[in-house]
Design a protein that fits this description.
The chain is mostly helical. It folds into three domains: 138 residues, Alpha Horseshoe (Serine Threonine Protein Phosphatase 5, Tetratricopeptide repeat), CATH 1.25.40; 85 residues, Alpha Horseshoe (Serine Threonine Protein Phosphatase 5, Tetratricopeptide repeat), CATH 1.25.40.10; 106 residues. The chain contains 17 helices and no strands. Helix 8 packs antiparallel against helix 9, helix 9 runs parallel beside helix 11 and helix 11 packs parallel to helix 13. InterPro entries: Bac_ResReg_Asp_Phosphatase (IPR051476), TPR-like_helical_dom_sf (IPR011990), TPR_rpt (IPR019734).
Length: 362
């Protein structure tokens, strides 16, 4: 069993004023007032943590970076290792969002150690979860698969729906990326159901994105687009800038798989702009890959496409995204194996050149 979702990153008085579904503009305003009125170093640490998380979710990278460091300094002044762990968790999560994955792992590993020593079970669990997610994003599934399962069991043991949704979605994503679509769909749908029952709107938005991804791979384009529209509405209501950009990128993926290459190109362009504005290099690179593939389908010069793929492979290698790099290599192989086109590029909605053997950007 599990209860309603809650947000342990909002601590002290903020925990009573804010909930898991509070919009991030509301979180930022409330936490900023608390930070200005804080009477102790621990109060300042807690307020700055919420400021950091709100800015991060809103895509304001510089402000988030300043705030989590302020939270850590205040927690250190207060001599509270648990609060220090929460600040490092926020900083590690921001580093992962910004594509600096080695830094993310260092900060999160330090957070794990501090949380373990402090006895703060939730901080320890969140830091471990951050490490697991970082490894999953890098494609290091062997290293983090067991950790995901352990975290899921911890969530079930303590009735923490939000943690269950996170862990289940991560496991589902690994199944999806390794080709076990049936298992991935089962887990994504279960995580979406749990999120809905626990009133975890953010978790539901991310889970619906996963469901839509798998459905579109299986050819259910209309259902996928409907679910993405539902998730987009949640993202806009909660001011989830990063989640909204990833939603748009997934919508572009769905268009691409359906052979609707003009729509895919336009939507990848939208996602690229959103990721660029929030300085999120992982999303930028993935959107660029989608654009390369869409333009190639629409008749772009093959040598130009290959040159951009080479640049993207270097970027993915630098960031440490193994799965994305494999997608670049697969699409390059497809382009080089295919003879130069002699027919006009397909119209939006056409499927004549679709290659189901090479899925769109994940």
């Amino acid at each position: 069993m599990y209860g309603k979702a809650f947000a342990p990153e909002y601590q002290g008085e903020l925990g009573a004023a804010l909930g898991v579904n509070s919009s991030y503009e509301e979180v930022l305003a409330t936490a900023s007032r608390a930070q200005a009125d804080a009477g102790t170093a621990l109060d300042r640490a807690r307020a700055a943590l919420a400021v950091a998380e709100a800015n991060r979710r809103l895509g304001r990278v510089s402000e988030a970076g300043h705030a989590w460091r302020e939270s850590y300094r205040s927690a250190r002044t207060a001599g509270d290792p648990g609060a220090m762990a929460w600040a490092l968790w926020s900083g590690g999560t921001l580093a992962r969002q910004c594509g600096t994955l080695p830094l993310a792992r260092r900060l999160l590993a330090h957070a794990v150690a501090l949380a373990e020593g402090s006895g703060d079970r939730l901080a320890h669990g969140y830091a471990l979860a951050g490490l697991a997610e970082t490894g999953r994003i890098q494609g290091d599934y062997a290293a983090v698969a067991d950790l995901h399962e352990q975290l899921l069991e911890q969530g079930r043991k303590h009735g923490e729906a939000r943690h269950m949704v996170w862990a289940m979605s991560g496991i589902a994503q690994m199944h999806r990326n390794t080709g076990d679509y049936d298992k991935a769909l089962e887990l994504f749908e279960e995580s979406a159901r749990i999120a809905a029952e626990a009133d975890d709107f953010r978790g539901r938005a991310w889970s619906l994105r996963g469901v839509a991804d798998v459905l579109s791979v299986q050819g259910e384009t209309d259902r996928a687009l409907t679910l993405l529209s539902e998730a987009e509405a949640i993202c806009r209501t909660m001011d989830l800038a990063s989640a909204l950009a990833y939603n748009h990128k997934m919508r572009a993926n769905v268009f691409f798989r359906a052979g609707r290459y003009v729509s895919a190109r336009e939507t990848y362009t939208l996602a690229l702009r959103e990721f660029s504005e929030m300085q999120e290099p992982r999303g930028v690179a993935l959107s660029r890959l989608g654009l390369v593939k869409s333009r190639a389908r629409l008749g772009r010069d093959r040598d130009e496409s290959l040159a951009e793929l080479d640049a993207l492979e270097r970027d993915f290698t630098k960031i440490g995204l193994r799965h994305a790099r494999e997608m670049v290599i697969a699409f390059r192989a497809e382009l080089t194996a295919r003879p130069a086109p002699e027919t006009p590029a397909p119209r939006s909605g056409a499927t004549t050149l679709r290659s189901p053997a090479v899925p769109a950007t994940s």
